[in-house]
């Protein structure tokens, strides 16, 4: 089993561990509908990407009151 030859210093250990952090996703508004979404992907609200319809979304039917 491999064993490290030398001890890692405190500063090297902290530098190595500094990149492990949780970053929230970068959201941008959709140009057509204004809903927030992830960049470089189709909008989940309207289904458009770069001004073109790429996803056909199902419309929710609202129950009519009688």
Helical fraction: 10-25%
**Helix-strand string:** HEEEE
Strand content: 15-25%
Mean pLDDT: 87
Number of helices: 1
Strand order of the largest sheet: 1-2
Distance between the terminal alpha carbons, to the nearest Å? 75 Å
- How does the major sheet shape up? 2 strands, antiparallel
Rg to the nearest angstrom?
Answer: 24 Å
Overview of the molecule:
With 66 residues, this protein is α+β, with helices and mostly antiparallel strands. It has one helix and four strands; from the N terminus they run αββββ. Strands 1-2 form a two-stranded antiparallel ribbon. Strands 3-4 form a two-stranded antiparallel sheet. The relative contact order is 0.11. The model has no long low-confidence stretch (mean pLDDT 87).
Give a brief rundown of this model:
With 66 residues, this protein is α+β, with helices and mostly antiparallel strands. It is 12% helix and 15% strand. It has 1 helix and 4 strands; from the N terminus they run H-E-E-E-E.
What topology does this entry show?
Layout lengths: L9 H8 L9 E3 L6 E3 L9 E2 L2 E2 L13
Antiparallel strand pairs: 1-2, 3-4
Features of the shown structure:
two-stranded antiparallel ribbon, alpha+beta, 66 residues
């Amino acid at each position: 089993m491999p064993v490290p030859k030398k001890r890692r210093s405190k500063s090297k250990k902290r530098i190595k561990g500094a990149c492990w952090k949780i970053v929230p996703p970068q959201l941008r508004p959709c140009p057509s509908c204004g809903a927030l979404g992830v960049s470089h992907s189709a909008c989940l609200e309207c289904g458009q990407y770069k001004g073109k319809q790429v996803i056909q979304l199902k419309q929710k039917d609202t129950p009519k009151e009688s």
